[in-house]
Design goal:
Elements: H1 3-7, E1 13-15, E2 26-28, E3 38-41, H2 54-59, E4 64-67, E5 77-79, H3 83-94, E6 104-108, H4 113-126, E7 131-134, E8 139-141, E9 144-146, H5 155-167, E10 172-176, H6 179-183, E11 194-197, H7 205-208, H8 211-223, E12 228-231, H9 236-241, E13 248-252, E14 259-266, E15 271-277, E16 280-286, H10 291-306, H11 311-319, E17 329-331, E18 339-343, H12 348-361, E19 366-370, H13 380-391, E20 394-397, H14 407-418, E21 424-427, H15 431-441, E22 447-451, E23 458-461, E24 464-467, H16 470-483
Parallel strand pairs: 2-3, 3-4, 4-5, 6-10, 6-11, 7-10, 11-12, 12-13, 13-14, 18-22, 19-20, 19-22, 20-21
Antiparallel strand pairs: 1-5, 7-8, 8-9, 14-15, 15-16, 17-18, 23-24
Helix pairs in contact: 3-5, 4-10, 4-11, 10-11, 12-13, 13-14, 15-16
């Protein structure tokens, strides 16, 4: 699209337009990815200002810039009050406003977003729909997988993905919507058919600073949604929707709600319960254990009911949901009398939910292998340590993704919480060795819980990502143990 056409009717100011119009091929926000003909968005991030990288982007071939103040670089520049929002607006226009051709569902909350979106996808596919999924683990168009770097893509990538989905005639888009994406205007301009809310617990306070800011970011989803499905058992739901004139549906286990569950049975590989809804009742079986997956299933059901899906297809879709890697995932342990559960739990609430769910079916000890990530919310570290100590029989405290921090310093923060409990524990900084210790010390009927990494296939240490897939690690360690039997 020609630069003049891209800027037309936006209200943005074009400076240094040059003698010839420029054909803009794509919009980039990372100067390292800029190629000839790109428009570079100088967005202001938490730690870096894109304006500082504008000169490098121009050297790499950027034809023009999006800025919030003019730069002395002599290239065409689109000047806007908010360069990040402007980048989202221009991306929508460049890709032909794909969201207008799609029905989009958004799911937000601290925990449960990924599992819930996969559940909705499974249900919709049982109803014969072609589904696009955007989320933490991967982006999917029908059966085709597209890699992802973050829970919700940056606006330029998001609009490109939505254009692909529209062009491939996707019937329904289901996406995780993170608090960061809402605060950073990555989903600016999107309208959601239904917004779903899982829960709100401590996480990302390194970024949001306060719970109120965290809640305000989540609330933006519902300001852009035509309908809401929220967790009545979560005390933040009422504040989330306060003052919003939006129809809603609630789900719960404890509080009165439109959708509720009873007769809940949690086993090592699944959970079963009876679900009552405004459209009737059904017995539900989900092949992912844990009480929190009862909540996720009810949220998926509520959204599905709003979309007009029948109860039998909802039950069928929940029974056959698959592909939720690293979410309460039971790993193969053939030949050994213990179980291994892999989960992404990396928040206090997520860890408590995970461990209490495991305790529901564990016949032996619950052994937790966990740590906390570096360069993230420091305040949650002792809280997670205390949670692990209270709900485990034995803890192996190790490293997660230390990033640029000293791993032992992070572990020290975690131990401040662990030491408030009477749990027995060991500290093993090397995560592979920590997992090995847990496996070799597991007794019959014990459940080893690997928390924090889930679907991730790397470990980030001093800014470098090293291959580390816990499924592979466990398989290798068990093979070593078999060879010594």
């Amino acid at each position: 699209m020609l630069l003049s056409e891209l800027v037309k009717d936006t209200g943005f100011r074009l400076v240094n337009p040059g003698a010839e119009d420029i054909d803009i091929k794509r919009i980039e926000y990372d100067s390292r990815r800029v190629k000839e003909g790109a428009l570079f968005g100088c967005v202001v991030g938490t730690f870096k200002d894109g304006h500082d990288y504008a000169e490098g982007a121009v050297k790499n071939g950027a034809a023009a810039l999006i800025v919030d103040h003019e730069l002395p670089l002599g290239v065409p520049q689109i000047v806007a009050p908010n360069s990040r929002r402007a980048m989202a607006e221009l991306a929508m226009k460049l890709y032909g406003y794909p969201a207008k051709e799609l029905k989009i569902i958004g799911v937000t909350g601290t925990n449960g977003k990924t599992t819930t979106t996969y559940m909705i996808k499974s249900i919709a596919e049982k109803c014969g729909l072609k589904v696009g999924l955007i989320g933490t683990i991967r982006n999917i168009i029908g059966d085709r997988v597209i890699s992802t770097q973050r829970t919700t893509p940056e606006s330029t990538e998001l609009q490109e993905i939505l254009r692909m989905m529209a062009d491939e005639h996707v019937d329904l888009v289901v996406m995780e919507v993170s608090s960061h994406s809402l605060d950073q205007e990555r989903v600016y301009g999107l309208e959601f058919e239904v917004g779903g809310f899982t829960n709100l617990t401590q996480d990302h306070l390194d970024y949001h600073k306060t719970f109120e800011n965290y809640l305000a970011a989540k609330r933006k989803l519902f300001e852009r949604s035509a309908f809401a499905v929220v967790n009545a058992d979560d005390p933040w739901s009422e504040k989330l929707l306060k003052g919003l004139d939006i129809p809603r549906m609630t789900y719960a286990v404890r509080e009165p709600a439109d959708i509720y569950a009873n007769n809940i049975e949690i086993c090592v590989r699944d959970v079963e319960f009876d679900m009552t809804t405004p459209e009737g009742s059904a017995h539900i079986s989900v092949p992912i254990p844990g009480l929190f997956n009862v909540f996720n299933a009810m949220l998926a059901a509520g959204i599905s009911l709003k979309l007009g899906f029948p109860m039998d297809k909802i039950a069928e879709g929940l029974k056959d949901v698959s592909g939720v890697t690293g979410r309460m995932e039971a790993l193969p342990t053939e030949g050994f009398p213990f179980s291994v559960i892999l989960d992404f739990a990396h928040t206090p609430d997520g860890l408590i939910n995970l461990l209490t769910s495991v305790r529901e079916f564990a016949k032996g000890r619950v052994i937790s292998v966990f740590g906390c990530g570096g360069d993230r919310d420091h305040a949650k570290r002792p809280i997670m340590g205390e949670a692990a100590g209270r709900y485990s029989d034995f803890c192996v405290v190790t490293s997660d993704n230390p990033r640029t921090e000293d791993p032992m310093s992070i572990i020290g923060n975690v131990l401040d919480g662990v030491n408030k409990t009477a749990v027995e524990y060991v500290v093993i900084q090397n995560r592979r060795e920590a997992i090995k210790y847990a496996l070799t010390h597991a007794k019959p009927n014990d459940v080893v819980v690997l928390a924090g990494k889930g679907h991730e296939t790397y470990q980030e240490i001093k800014g470098v990502k090293y291959p580390f897939d816990e499924k592979v690690v466990v398989a290798e360690l068990l093979d070593e143990m078999r060879s010594k039997q």
